[in-house]
Each structure stands twice: as structure tokens, then as C-alpha cells.
Amino acid sequence: MSGISVLLPVAATSDTAGLYRAHQSIVEQTVSPSEIVLVTNQSLTEDIETAIEDLVSTHSDSRHEHIPDASGLGGVLQAGLKRCSEPFVARMDADDISEPERFADQKTVLTDTKADVVGSHLAEFYDDPEHPERTREVPITHDEIAEWMSWRCPLNHPTTMFDREAVLSAGGYRDFPMMEDWDLWARCLSAGLRFRNLDKTLVRAQVNDLVDRRGGLEYARAEMQMAQELRQLGIASRRDTLQHLCLRVPPRLLPPQVREVIYSLFAR
């Protein structure tokens, strides 16, 4: 057994082709996970329900956990994390593609170093996985990651693998809309966990309407709440908080066309 659980939330709106593709990329890993946990909390479309049933019935290492009382993505991820049984947990979304060596590379880091959480760069594509539109690069060392944490999320969530017990001991996921991952990593840093990003692209993610999803009043409010939390945790200084509010909040309120230009320049 590899000691790896894959935590894969599936939304009612997930694309069945993307789900099959994501699952296949897990099956084709050079180090196979011990289990693939598909987690839902909503009423599913017939297509998605059929796809999940098919994956579970044809792959003995896959199972479906339906948790209707889980609130928001953070609640779904926390409930799913508690149901994972292996010491290491790999995150993926239902339209991601993991490169075949991903789990092997990340498990090596977690077992051979002091890192508790390891991620990588992330390639984003619209229609063709072989031709990504852009790559979201992240800092590599723990110190660099800690420096970024004060005003910018330093890990690509769907690329991460982490020590399950260490993350749960830091409080795990919680309902923090649009900032579930940054909220988790900030609390993990505050609790003393160690981070690492591999300097390679181990996941490709399909994106749709990215600019609209990353803008609007709700996203601006989430940025302000995140800035407040970072300050309360002692991660961000007054200067960091001011930088966060000035550089990250206004773009969320700009027209989509302007955000597209900003996002293309800064890639996060």
C-alpha cells in the first residue's frame, strides 16, 4: 500500500468527461494511491451520479462519500479529509490532470524531508490539455512560501499532498468561501507546519470563465477577511496588510476585461 489517499470533491455541476479524465490520471500514477475518495454534498445530476457509480464499481480503490450536511467547499473537504484513511492525502479537483510521476515525487518529499505540505506549479488550459494557456508558478522553499503567505496564497491547492494528521491538528479545512486553501495554509504555518513546492508542473487544470470567477464584490470581501485573518495570526505586518488590501482588493472590483489583462500579467 502506498499510504496515499486522494481527496476529490465532485460538484453537481462537474463535467463527466473531466471527471473520467481526472480519475484516469490518478489510475495511471507510477505510485498508485491506496484509495480515491470522491466526496459530494449536493443532489447530483443523473450524468454525474452515473459516472461516480461507474468509477466506484470498476475501481476497487475508489469510493463515494456523500455528506449532505457538509457546508460549502471547506465543509466538504474537511468531512472528506476525516474519511481518508491513509497518512498522506493528495488533493485534486474533478477536472484536473495529474502527471504520472506526481504522487511518487511528492511522497518522496514528505517521507524524506521535514515538509508536511508539498505542492507544485499548475498549468491551466481551456480546451486542450496539451496546450495550456498559462502556468501558475509558486515559490519553492519554506522560507519563500512563508514570505508569500502574508499577502498572496503560495500554493496551488489542487497540486498539494500533505500529512493528514498534521493538517488536522492545525484545524483542517473550514467554511471560508473562496479562500478555503489560503485560510488552511495560513493556519498550518501558524501551527508550525513546514512547506515545500516542487519546481515542476505536476498538475494541469481546466479553467472556464476564470476572470469572472475571480472577481466581484464577494471576492473582494473574501480578500478583506483573509487580510484580517493573516494579521490576527501574526503572519502579516501592517505593511503586508496594506499591500494586500491595495493590490488585491481593487482588481476584484474592476470590469472583467481589465481583470483579464491584470491576471495575464501576474498569473494569480
Automatic annotation (TrEMBL):
Any one GO molecular-function label of the UniProt entry: glycosyltransferase activity
Listed InterPro entries: Glyco_trans_2-like, Glycosyltransf_2, Nucleotide-diphossugar_trans
Keywords: Glycosyltransferase, Transferase
Pfam families named among the record's database cross-references: Glycos_transf_2
UniProt domain Glycosyltransferase 2-like: residue ranges: 18-161
EC number(s) recorded for this UniProt protein: 2.4.-.-
Top-level enzyme category: transferase
Family listed: Belongs to the glycosyltransferase 2 family.
Name this protein carries in UniProt: Glycosyltransferase
